[in-house]
Design brief:
This protein is α+β, with helices and mostly antiparallel strands and about 90 residues long. It has one domain. Strands 1-2-3-4 form a 4-stranded antiparallel sheet, with helices on one face. Strand 2 and strand 3 form a beta hairpin.
Length: about 90
């Protein structure tokens, strides 16, 4: 899965206790500042962006975040298929 983009990167974190899904912190590549997280939202049954307070994104960063979430969802679905579970 692609984790490096022009201005941002996605750093995978260890799974939290009692959690089955993966999660990532989004960092600004230039400053290293954390911008938010990509995590599983149970109610929606998909990965979502939880941006930190007062963080703004331009269209390029939003496009990269969308591309990343789509890849994360595709990987998640492949893992489920391998376990023969459906969403």
């Amino acid at each position: 899965m692609k984790t490096e983009y022009q201005f941002i990167r996605f750093d995978e974190q260890e799974k939290l206790e009692n959690h089955k899904t993966r999660w990532w912190i989004i960092h600004n590549k230039k400053s290293g500042d954390a911008l938010g997280i990509i995590c599983w939202e149970n109610g929606w049954r998909k990965y979502v962006l939880q941006a930190d307070q007062n963080i703004i994104f331009d269209i390029k960063c939003l496009e990269d975040i969308i591309a990343f979430i789509k890849e994360a969802m595709a990987d998640h679905e492949k893992e489920l298929q391998a376990r023969k579970v459906t969403i």
